[in-house]
């Protein structure tokens, strides 16, 4: 039964075919606009994470798992609501 199902090519095969047919520049096409869109949101996330971590280090055991988890959750929630398009 397994012999009847076609096998899909792996990622290395796909990479090889793209490089052969379209060239190495095609791998990075669209990277610039993507970075322009992602960079500001990541900057806001890490700023919120850092600020929250600084404040929580005074409340909990400094640099503990609690501090990192709460800071990450807070930064994620902040970015979700702050960067939401209406």
TrEMBL record:
UniProt keywords, alphabetically: Membrane, Mitochondrion, Mitochondrion inner membrane, Repeat, Transmembrane, Transmembrane helix, Transport
Cited InterPro entries: MCP_dom_sf, MCP_transmembrane, SLC25A33/36-like
Coiled coil: none
Solcar repeats: 1-55
Membrane topology (UniProt): Multi-pass membrane protein
GO biological process terms held by the UniProt record: pyrimidine nucleotide import into mitochondrion
GO MF: pyrimidine nucleotide transmembrane transporter activity
PROSITE patterns per UniProt: SOLCAR (PS50920)
Catalytically driven reaction(s): UTP(in) + CTP(out) = UTP(out) + CTP(in)
GO (cellular component) term, any one: mitochondrial inner membrane
Subcellular location: Mitochondrion inner membrane
Similarity comment text for this entry: Belongs to the mitochondrial carrier (TC 2.A.29) family.
Protein name stated in the entry: Solute carrier family 25 member 36
